[in-house]
Every structure is written in structure tokens, then in C-alpha cells.
Automatic annotation (TrEMBL):
<keyword id="KW-0456">Lyase</keyword>
<dbReference type="GO" id="GO:0046982">
    <property type="term" value="F:protein heterodimerization activity"/>
</dbReference>
<dbReference type="InterPro" id="IPR050177">
    <property type="entry name" value="Lipid_A_modif_metabolic_enz"/>
</dbReference>
<dbReference type="GO" id="GO:0102765">
    <property type="term" value="F:UDP-D-apiose synthase activity"/>
</dbReference>
<dbReference type="GO" id="GO:0005737">
    <property type="term" value="C:cytoplasm"/>
</dbReference>
<keyword id="KW-0961">Cell wall biogenesis/degradation</keyword>
<dbReference type="InterPro" id="IPR001509">
    <property type="entry name" value="Epimerase_deHydtase"/>
</dbReference>
<dbReference type="GO" id="GO:0071555">
    <property type="term" value="P:cell wall organization"/>
</dbReference>
<dbReference type="Pfam" id="PF01370">
    <property type="entry name" value="Epimerase"/>
</dbReference>
<feature type="domain" description="NAD-dependent epimerase/dehydratase">
    <location>
        <begin position="19"/>
        <end position="293"/>
    </location>
</feature>
<keyword id="KW-0963">Cytoplasm</keyword>
<dbReference type="GO" id="GO:0042802">
    <property type="term" value="F:identical protein binding"/>
</dbReference>
<comment type="similarity">
    <text>Belongs to the NAD(P)-dependent epimerase/dehydratase family.</text>
</comment>
<dbReference type="GO" id="GO:0033352">
    <property type="term" value="P:UDP-D-apiose biosynthetic process"/>
</dbReference>
<keyword id="KW-0520">NAD</keyword>
<dbReference type="GO" id="GO:0048040">
    <property type="term" value="F:UDP-glucuronate decarboxylase activity"/>
</dbReference>
<dbReference type="InterPro" id="IPR036291">
    <property type="entry name" value="NAD(P)-bd_dom_sf"/>
</dbReference>
Length: 392
């Protein structure tokens, strides 16, 4: 394929490639497709059952002007679990990116079978076709594969809990510690870990070229759904969309088990920069597992709720609620079998060494960008839905 005039981190020309992106219609996929169309010459075969989040990339703009990237993105509506066309699309491509997954914590408990099938069984043919056809694979895993930190097993008052060795998560040395089998919340993490092990084994035994990505709470516009507006009316999205939904409806934010869990959050646009480096630097990315997060943006879920309340008040011009948060138990919120990881702080040594990448956006800035989008996109629809419900 032709060179593009762009060079990789080692000064080699980057060749235009065809990328088969499975799960292209989701949150991460839509941002990655935008980046590839705007900044690279690569072609994308976008595979998903939904195209709502990428329809602006597929359809001519108002006024009938053709898209600046022409036909470099093609949408293929198919479900990877039972479609024979998948192997053909993989054979036509230079690189396969697998983003397909059920990845909402509320589902791990209530739909553990679907969760395990989606994240392990359905991914098996993708890995097999890549291995058999000599295709490179970038597979999206999760920071959940780490489970709980070693620190969480130390006594509550132990000073060792403050030592990073017991809570910072490293790709190559941190153990992966899950709760007991009856805690079905770990169905997701366990399925994701097993597919990682399978991919690694395909690399070791059959020479599969792979990169595994472990996202640490990527957030930004188009993430998740707002219940009853652009998603099911029943169902619980992830924390950011959950809190956004409460803010839009002027309801207190629900803190599960007091909101004590600690998380780091990274802006989707920073994270996508890292993925583009993986795509275009195979010699540095192959065989690697990469944490992609922002250790500087660490907060408890309670602190996140407080920050989001302040930011939303700023972007919407509305006064915050007098009682902005309420505490709920995990059993009440998620049902039986819920369990949680205590802290998720990524070690960034490997991605920094291999790709020279560091995240840039502060937590306040990424929340402001995301909540501005949420307010602009949903405030009116939520207002109408509330007034309809009151009228009826």
C-alpha cells in the first residue's frame, strides 16, 4: 500500500492500511473512527449492529456536500456471534481492532451469562481468524482484569495501604485478584482475563501479532446512554452517564456504598491518541499489554459526584440541589452478588517507554467538556420527558 508522507515514531513511512473495526459504532469506536478519518489515510471497515454514533461519518452532510474522507469508511451491519461474513472482512484487512463487549457493571450481575459469552465466547472467532490469516489484532480488554488491589486485603488501619506497591496496577507484575464465584460482578473481569490469556497464547504458540489495551475509565461525549432518552428506560449506565442523568433530572446523585471506591478518569481524546500510536507503530506495540489511563485524575466516586455537581451548575447555569447526593447500598443499587474493586491506579511505565505517550487533560477540563456536551444534547429531551410523565 502507498506511503502517506507521515512517519512513525522511528521515522519510517506509515503505509495506508485497511482496518476492520469490530464495535465501531460504540463510544470508543466512534471517536477512533473520527480520528482515523480526520488525520490519517487509513480505510475503516466499521462492523457493528448499531451505527447511530457514527452516522455523521457515513452520511453526506446537510446541503448534500460529499464527505471529505469519501468512501474510506464503510459500515457493515453484522453481529459477530453468528455471521459468516466476519472472516471475509478480516481477510480483507491489514489490522483488526476488537472493541465489541458488554461492559456495563449493572449487567455483570443481572446478565452474567450474556456478559461471559459477549466477552469470551464471541471474541474467540475473531482471535482465531486473525491467527489463521496472519492478521494483526488490537484487542480491547479492561482495567477490571486486575480485580482488587493487594492493599484491600491489608488491615484498614495499615500504613502499608498508602504504599503504591500495594495499589498501583502494573501490566506485567500485578496479580489479578477476583472475589468469590458467587460474586457474579466478576463475570466480566474473568471473561476478559481469559480472552487476554488466549490471545497471549496464540502469540506465543502461533505467532499472532497482538496488542492488548486495558482502558482505565475513558470518558467523554457519546459515552453510554441516558435512560429513556437514547437508551432503554430501564437499565443502569456507567457512573458518568448515571450521574449525568441525575443532574439532568435535578435528582440527587446516588453513591453506592458511600462512594468510597477510588478511580482515575481519562479524557477519550487523550486515550484515542494512544490508540493511534499503537495502530501506526506495530514494531513498538506488538506483543505488548498497555494500561491507558490518567493516574493524575484520581478521585473517590464521592469526590467525582461533588465535582460533577459543581461543573454541571457552571455549564447549565442552574443552582445545585441542596442535597446533591444520597447513599445507597450496592445490594439495593445493583442487586445480589455485587462486589467492587477498591482502587484503580494505572502504572504508565510501559506505554510511556514504548510509545512516549502521556495523557494531558485534567479531570475538571474533561468533566466540563463532557457535561457541556451532555447538557447541550440531552437537557431539552429530559425536560420534555419529565413534563410528559407529569402530564400523564
Amino acid at each position: 500500500m502507498a506511503s502517506t508522507g507521515r512517519v512513525d515514531l522511528d521515522g519510517r513511512p506509515i503505509k495506508a492500511m485497511t482496518i476492520c473495526m469490530i464495535g465501531a459504532g460504540g463510544f470508543i469506536g466512534s471517536h477512533l473512527c473520527e480520528k482515523l478519518m480526520a488525520e490519517t489515510p487509513h480505510k475503516v471497515l466499521a462492523v457493528d449492529v448499531y451505527s447511530d454514533k457514527i452516522k455523521h461519518l457515513l452520511e453526506p452532510q446537510s446541503g448534500g456536500a460529499s464527505l471529505p474522507w469519501g468512501d474510506r469508511i464503510q459500515f457493515h451491519r453484522l453481529n459477530i456471534k453468528n455471521d459468516s461474513r466476519l472472516e471475509g472482512l478480516i481477510k480483507m484487512s491489514d489490522l483488526i481492532i476488537n472493541l465489541a463487549a458488554i461492559c456495563t457493571p449493572a449487567d455483570y450481575n443481572t446478565r452474567p451469562l450474556d456478559t461471559i459469552y459477549s466477552n469470551f465466547i464471541d471474541a474467540l472467532p475473531v482471535v482465531k481468524y486473525c491467527s489463521e490469516n496472519g492478521k494483526r489484532l488490537i484487542h480491547f480488554s479492561t482495567c477490571e482484569v486486575y480485580g482488587k488491589t493487594i492493599g484491600s486485603f491489608l488491615p484498614k488501619d495499615s500504613p502499608l495501604r498508602q504504599d503504591p506497591i500495594y495499589y498501583v496496577l502494573k501490566e506485567d507484575t500485578s496479580p489479578c485478584i477476583f472475589g468469590s464465584i458467587e460474586k457474579q460482578r466478576w463475570s466480566y473481569a474473568c471473561a476478559k482475563q481469559l480472552i487476554e490469556r488466549l490471545i497471549y497464547a496464540e502469540g506465543a504458540e502461533n505467532g499472532l501479532e497482538f496488542t492488548i489495551v486495558r482502558p482505565f475509565n475513558w470518558i467523554g461525549p457519546r459515552m453510554d446512554f441516558i435512560p429513556g432518552i437514547d437508551g432503554p428506560s430501564e437499565g443502569v449506565p456507567r457512573v458518568l452517564a448515571c450521574f449525568s442523568n441525575n443532574l439532568l433530572r435535578h435528582e440527587p446523585l446516588k453513591l453506592v456504598d458511600g462512594g468510597q471506591s477510588q478511580r482515575t478518569f481519562i479524557y477519550i481524546k487523550d486515550a484515542i491518541e494512544a490508540v493511534l500510536l499503537m495502530i501506526e507503530n506495530p514494531t513498538r506495540a506488538n506483543g505488548q499489554i498497555f494500561n491507558v489511563g490518567n493516574p493524575d485524575n484520581e478521585v473517590t466516586v464521592r469526590q467525582l459526584a461533588e465535582m460533577m455537581t459543581q461543573v454541571y451548575s457552571k455549564v447549565s447555569g442552574e443552582a445545585p440541589l441542596e442535597v446533591p447526593t444520597i447513599d445507597v447500598s450496592s445490594k439495593e443499587f445493583y442487586g445480589e452478588g455485587y462486589d467492587d474493586s477498591d482502587k484503580r491506579i494505572p502504572d504508565m511505565t510501559i506505554i510511556n517507554r514504548q510509545l512516549g505517550w502521556n495523557p494531558k487533560t485534567s479531570l475538571w477540563d474533561l468533566l466540563e467538556s463532557t457535561l457541556t456536551y451532555q447538557h447541550r444534547t440531552y437537557a431539552e429531551a429530559v425536560k420534555q420527558a419529565i413534563s410528559k410523565a407529569v402530564a400523564s
